[in-house]
Amino acid sequence: MAYKNYDRETYLNNFREIMRLKPQIEKYIDDAFEKGVDNLVMAGVGGSISIMMPMEYFAKKRTAMPIYMENAAEFVLGINKAVTKKSLVVLYSESGTTKEAIAAAKYCKERGIPTIGVSGNEEAPLQDLLTYPIVCGAGDELSCDGDHMKLFLIVSAVLHKNGDMEDYDEFIENLEKLPEALADIKEKVDEEAKAYAYQIKDETYHMLVGSGNLWGSTYCFAMCYLEEMQWIRTKSIQSPEFFHGTLELLEEDTSIMIFKGEDETRMLTERVENFAKKISKKVKVIDTKDYEAKGISQKYRGDFSPAFLEAYLGRLTAHLEDATGHSLDIRRYYRVMDY
Amino acid sequence: MAYKNYDRETYLNNFREIMRLKPQIEKYIDDAFEKGVDNLVMAGVGGSISIMMPMEYFAKKRTAMPIYMENAAEFVLGINKAVTKKSLVVLYSESGTTKEAIAAAKYCKERGIPTIGVSGNEEAPLQDLLTYPIVCGAGDELSCDGDHMKLFLIVSAVLHKNGDMEDYDEFIENLEKLPEALADIKEKVDEEAKAYAYQIKDETYHMLVGSGNLWGSTYCFAMCYLEEMQWIRTKSIQSPEFFHGTLELLEEDTSIMIFKGEDETRMLTERVENFAKKISKKVKVIDTKDYEAKGISQKYRGDFSPAFLEAYLGRLTAHLEDATGHSLDIRRYYRVMDY
């Protein structure tokens, strides 16, 4: 069967390329730790900070080493006093041209702060500035599962090296099986995601709710996809925060997307689901528990929930532009006017 | 002159009470440090996490000690491995009955993790659970400037004790002058805030943008005031993030509130202002630089910007319910139905 913007073999090949980065990343991390690493900093803007958010969750469950999430635009102002030459700064820019990522890399280079970063091609301006440059294409153009994969390799290697991940080999074995599991999800949900895309094509506002390690995808899908690429208004809100304000706006005809994962915070999102279903007739729950994910051990399903969710969202995005008749590529302002 | 929901003497008296907490707080912090403090955790939900956000900024500029911001509902799931008996956890609940704050206090008590917390009265259930309980009423019912004041006392005492604040006495001298400065702002802006309230009374959607230490107030005013108390849709977004999606929704008739402070990130917000003014005819900039704040040294204006902004927002809120005819006290669901 053929799928819009998706071909199983191409997708799996892309992910195989990502997995091939493992020895290079481990070597980088060994080198960084030889020089000393006191804390891990993840600095990004927009899509790139959002793909890093599940990694913060992944790391802080396992290590007492401080993990700092920094908006790259604020990071270069030097506000965080804990950032030193013994920090390791993770940067990410698919195009390798994101202004804020380049500025952050320059900032670090000038101060001798080591950086490890990913961009899609060797010629990207970001590459020259990084202490530990990684070149790798996207796993999937329409979702962030490939980005998660690359970051999992970096962060798990850091945790392992820091003595916080005895199960590193087991984790990597599971990570290797993730692409097949994600491809299965994409194929399984495609038809349903298409139907949902047509169902919401005329909505002008959505609430998006998620918690724990799904928050990054919740925030990103609202801002980078629905707002930027579809010009649809959104409010993204963390599940426990929903009850401190946004709930009052929910009415019978309010569209609300609830992203339910398998980490420790699952019941916080279930609480939103139970409430929302009493009020609105337009509640959409995407529950990663519905996906089989063959070969993935129960132990890691919670960690991989963000990638499972992205597998769904990638399919939804592919169909949404057809349903709304609004191409994902149109911009009013971004790279159209100077600001 | 008389002001709705505000009387200068009452306001200043409330703040004098807050300042009287200083010796008690210092004693608490001395005691906590005698037992050892490795990191500072601020845990809250909704309004309470938002008032803590400027404190994270205030602290991380001055100390390399890790500061963790935790959603209280997620905090009790024990996700952050860095939280130990040598953490100091800050909790806050004006009513002293917020479920999540109480659960967090219990969680800490059972594990011997020290807590310092504030609530409005001695009988509040939160009080019994805290290692270091503080009782103090609100500074202002309609804004968060009083909350900031209490938290400044706690966080500056921690920084001082940790050897990160040589200018502690000078800071406290300035903090003592803050209430008069805030009262002046409230009185000065009242008429203009009223006019703005009437100007926006029929708007059904606002973008709210702020950066750095103003982000907490931006987030809170959108969710706790406009959404919860006025049932108006909002999108709150950090200034550098605005350019990674939300900008595409801005049109000539889109209402956007831009909160401009005096910390290091000011120019990130100026960039949004410059862009927004090219597109929309409904741009409102609240710039704390416009306020005199007599007696406050230039050195601390950036730190106090969130309180300056709150002084304005308190007046706006007071008039907004008259302008919209929607009382601040009506709720559809909160404490009306069980969920």
Description:
Chains A, B: This is Glucosamine-fructose-6-phosphate aminotransferase. Chains A, B: GO terms for molecular function: carbohydrate derivative binding; glutamine-fructose-6-phosphate transaminase (isomerizing) activity. Chains A, B: Keywords: Aminotransferase, Transferase. Chains A, B: InterPro entries: FrlB_SIS, Fructosamine_deglycase_FrlB, SIS_dom, SIS_dom_sf. Two copies of one chain form a homodimer. Chain A is of the alpha/beta class. Chain A has two domains: 159 residues, Glucose-6-phosphate isomerase like protein, domain 1 (Rossmann fold), CATH 3.40.50; 147 residues, Rossmann fold, CATH 3.40.50. The first copy, chain A, is built from twelve helices and nine strands. Chain A has a five-stranded parallel β-sheet, with helices on both faces. In chain A, strands 7-6-8-9 form a four-stranded parallel β-sheet, with helices on both faces. In chain A, α6 links the parallel β4 and β5. In chain A, α2 packs across α7. The N and C termini of chain A lie far apart (44 Å). The model of chain A has no long low-confidence stretch (mean pLDDT 96). Chains A and B meet through α3, α4, α9, β7 and α10 of A and α3, α4, α9, β7 and α10 of B.
